[in-house]
Automatic annotation (TrEMBL):
Entry similarity comment: Belongs to the serine/threonine dehydratase family.
CDD domains xrefs: Thr-dehyd (cd01562)
Domain Tryptophan synthase beta chain-like PALP: 17-305
GO MF, one annotated term: magnesium ion binding
Claim: Chaperone is one of the keywords in the record: no
Gene Ontology BP term (one): D-serine biosynthetic process
Designated name of the protein: Threonine dehydratase
Keyword vocabulary terms for this entry: Lyase, Magnesium, Pyridoxal phosphate
Phylogenetic lineage: Bacteria, Pseudomonadati, Bacteroidota, Cytophagia, Cytophagales
InterPro entries assigned to the protein according to its UniProt record, in alphabetical order: Ser/Thr_deHydtase_PyrdxlP-BS, TrpB-like_PALP, TrpB-like_PALP_sf
Length: 315
């Protein structure tokens, strides 16, 4: 059994990472509210540093390193946002970062990692290649591995996003987040259940990468073999720590197909005039697909990130 971050630890993490993050706004759209049949509050982590909520967890993990650990820098494997977030947090802290990225990672995300000072090591686009390449990097550099999601300090940092939502004084009936590795969902579920046990926590997940949904239904961790979805930020398998949090604190997981994801993404572009990446649209797609379950509610949705290649929009 893992220990979970407490509310007190999440609040301390929030104070700790202030120099590294933005307090992102909550936006609303009357048109989307009408379509959804409920009040939707979008927490805009697409406006976050490095363009994604991942800035929170990476910053928290780096700040908590000992002086001894900082000497050899940090390393991770990531298809995008965690990579950029860790590279930036490391550079701000004055330490090195080694980032293993699959060759299929979007070019915009590779450019971001380089611009934040990270050293990229490319590998084949599968989990085994990522893990073996990372191990070789860690053996060579003695850098501290900061996992993208299945890590106490990272989950503790991601949990600060929901903390800010609750500090706005909105009495949410439901809070929704996308799920890939589960760091954001796990952190969101912990904060929400500590503050408002009656509030439901629901995840959106792509049908083409539905290991969290299948694991949740089977009550045992089922890894994803060959994920295939436009939501490139959700291709990773659910982490063990996050699976335990989800089994205890998440109320449901809804799946959506790529067409539904693209429609929700386009809706946000057209109605809210903001840039989001496909993974970000998954919770809204899940809400619109299951409208009856949310009728008349106050629903918070975390817009997880906005790092998308504008030359390759799916609409």
């Amino acid at each position: 059994m893992y220990t979970f971050p407490t509310l007190e630890e999440i609040k301390l993490a929030h104070e700790r990472i202030q120099p590294f993050i933005h307090r992102t706004p909550i936006l609303k759209s009357e048109v989307i509210n009408e379509m959804a049949g409920c009040e939707v509050y979008f927490k805009c982590e697409n406006f976050q540093k490095v363009g994604a909520f991942k800035a929170r967890g990476a910053a928290n993990a780096v700040v908590k390193l000992s002086d001894e650990q900082k000497k050899n820098g940090v390393a991770t494997h990531s298809s995008g946002n965690h990579a950029a977030a860790l590279a930036r947090a490391a550079t701000v802290a004055g330490i090195k970062s080694y980032i293993v990225m699959p060759s299929s990672a979007p070019e915009i995300k590779k450019k971001a990692v380089k611009s934040y000072g990270g050293e990229i090591i490319e590998c084949e686009p599968n989990l085994m290649a990522r893990e073996t390449t990372l191990q070789a990097v860690v053996d060579k550099t003695e850098a501290t591995f900061i996992p993208p999601y299945d890590y106490f300090d990272v989950v503790e940092g991601q949990a600060t996003c929901a903390l800010e939502m609750w500090e706005e004084g909105i009495d949410f009936d439901t809070i929704m987040a996308p799920v890939g590795g589960g760091g954001l969902l796990g952190g969101t579920a912990l904060t929400t259940k500590y503050i408002s046990p009656r509030t439901k926590v629901i995840a959106g997940e792509p049908e083409g990468a539905d290991d969290a949904y299948r694991s949740f239904q089977a009550k045992k961790l089922i890894p994803m073999d060959v994920p295939n979805t436009i939501a490139d930020g959700l291709l990773t398998s659910l982490g063990k720590l996050n699976f335990q949090i989800i089994m205890e604190h998440v109320d449901d997981i809804f799946t959506v197909n790529d067409e539904e994801i693209i429609a929700a993404m386009r809706l946000i572009y057209e109605r809210m005039k903001i840039v989001i990446e496909p993974s970000c649209a998954v919770p809204l797609a899940a809400l619109l697909k299951n409208k009856e379950q949310f009728k008349g509610q106050k629903v918070g949705i975390i817009l997880s990130g906005g790092n998308v290649d504008l030359g390759k929009l799916p609409f």
